[in-house]
Amino acid sequence: MRQLDQTYNTNWTILFLCWFLAALSTAGSLFFSHVMEFAPCILCWYQRICLFPLVLILAAGLFPLDKSVVKYSLPLAVVGWLTALYHTLLYSGIIPESIQPCSQGISCTEEYIDLFGFVTIPMLSLLSFSTIIALLTILNRRMSK
Amino acid sequence: MKYVIFGFSCVVLFFVFVFASSYYKGQQAEKFGFMAKENASIFVRDHSPTLGNDDAKVYLIEFMDPACETCAAFDPIVKLMMQSNPGKIKLVLRYAPFHEGADTFVKILEAAKKQGKYWETLDVMYKSQQYWASHGNPQPQRIWEFLPRAGLDIEKIKKDMNDPAIAKIIEQDMADAKTLNVRKTPGYFVNGKPLQTFGYRQLQQLVQSEITANYPN
């Protein structure tokens, strides 16, 4: 019984971290757009579409811990991750800018921040989605045992 | 216990966000205040149209776009503030034509300046804006229907507006807008201090605080 309790608590903590990361990223994203007033480009919006609901879905899965939360949140995280990957490659110039999909107004490759000389906004997004996917995968393994 | 952890995290995230916002805004205000002292020409260029007393101690700098509805909505408020504080406020207009094709309207304005009808033309533009600059269905050519109301020589406008000097003015203003981080219109600075949260009341407060600081009696 103790064992079971402990497993439950660890799983809960993993999901909680996942939620916290999504919430932190959402806050960061809102900070960039509302406080620093960087206009989000199309690709940013696609990533936001995947990120913002995660905050609610993961929170709902926490009370009580729901085994199917991975099933509902992983697709969002994967799509967000793919968009973030594409965006990062575009940003760093690995994919040439001529094929970028955003039109007039806001460029998807205009550099806004450059922390420590190499960290960009799409990179933060990619990092966040990667970690969320990793945590969800671990949780899935543990729960399907 | 789990609810407590969750709730606590929400509260922490919220306060970190609020704190970071106010810290960032404070930093920006400090930076622009410094710029206003060191490099006043970023805010007011020689070519910039101004309204009001030259000796006024409160400079209200507005980055505007003739096709921007919010600029049109703010125009009466700004004029009212100038009326109720006679001689104390000087309005400086800077161009930030972010709407598509809006530099044409700026060119018309600058051409109207040569006929001494700058403010009349701007007034006509703002009042007729809904007919030629509606977002769903912009019809920029319709602006010409309204321009004669300002008493302009239209043929002369059409000739003058292509003066490369006007294009240079727009270029300079856009460059300054970028330096000052103006991404939306209208963008206000009062004696170099940016309007931190947008709104009528906030602008009035900022102007009032500068009036109080500069006219202590």
In summary, what is this structure?
In chain A, α1 (2-35) packs antiparallel against α2 (42-62), α2 (42-62) runs antiparallel to α3 and α3 packs antiparallel against α4. Chain A is an all-alpha fold and 145 residues long.
Outline type of chain A: elongated
CATH architecture title of chain A = Up-down Bundle
Distance between the termini of chain B: 59 Å
**Would you tell me the structural class of the helices and strands of chain A?**
mainly alpha
Number of strands of chain B: 5
Low-confidence stretches of chain B: none
The whole-number mean of residue pLDDT values of chain A reads 85
Oligomeric nature of the chains: heterodimer
CATH topology of chain A: Bromodomain-like
Number of helices of chain B: 8
In angstroms, what is the radius of gyration of chain A? 17 Å
Q: Which properties best describe this structure?
A:
heterodimer, A: 145 residues, Bromodomain-like, B: 217 residues, alpha+beta, Glutaredoxin, 5-stranded mixed β-sheet, 56% helix, globular
